[in-house]
Amino acid sequence: MNLNEKLAILQRIYAVYGEFLDGRDLACKRGCAHCCTRNVTLTTLEGYHIADTLAASGRIDLVGRLEVGAEGNRFRPLVTTNGIAEICLRGEDPPEEESNPDWGECGLLTENECPLYGVRPFGCRCMVSARNCGETGAADMDPLVVTVNTVILQYIEHVDADGYSGNLTDILLWMGPEENRDQYREGALTHPPRGLIPNRPVKALMAPPRHRAEIKPILEAIGNIPPRNPAG
After folding, report:
1. Which three-class secondary structure string do you get for the chain?
2. Residues 177/104, Cβ–Cβ less than 8 Å
3. pLDDT-based confidence at residue 26 (cuts at 50, 70, 90)
4. Pairing of strands 197-198, 41-43
5. Which residue in 14, 26, 29, 182 is a FRET match for 123, CA 20 to 30 A apart?
6. pLDDT per residue as tens digits for the range 118-127
7. Are 179 and 190 in contact (CB under 8 A)?
């Protein structure tokens, strides 16, 4: 699968997910930024898409904002979503991971608005809530939404199985330089910075039996998952 095919699938995923959310009673609205923390994660595919779009529009300097406070605490996953699925398949418990919203807001946030909103990663798109998070202290998500979010995260990782996952700050700072984007386009991106972990292909979808019938149309709309392996 070449990069253009991967990017086309990513756009299809975003569109299908937007349709899935249409009509749902959500509290999320412009200016609401309670979930815009330093703990957002994404794949290198999404990071490339964001950085390449910014470069094409002459706004790649936005990535530089993340250098401020880049040494501060942020969520850096130890295992990818598909890695967690494999651990569960083995009947083991995934490692405990530390994440704290008090580590601060996203370094890109400007007056409670995101300058990358149109190309934001799925980790941002899927943070939806039926009630105002500022009033409740946490997102109020329907269990079906949680399942759909998880499965789509697995799908995006699968498409980028020869890439990496990690914190938004780490991946965007890596994808910012043109030479790194060139290497990603050529499939030659190596030596990731500290905190990034290799993606894995899907071996099992983390969907409980009660939701399988409901998520089937979503997966069909996205398209069948092509076979992949970590080497591409």
Report:
1. CCHHHHHHHHHHHHHHHHHHHCCCCCCCCCCCCCCCECCCEEEHHHHHHHHHHHHHCCCHHHHHHHHCCCCCCCCCCCCCHHHHHHHHHCCCCCCCCCCCHHHCECCCCECCECCCHHHCCHHHHCCCCCCCHHHHCCCCCCHHHHHHHHHHHHHHHHHCCCCEEEEHHHHHHHHCCHHHHHHHHCCCCCCCCCCCEECCCCCCCCCCHHHHHHHHHHHHHHCCCCCCCCCC
2. no
3. confident
4. unpaired
5. 182
6. 999 999 999 9
7. no
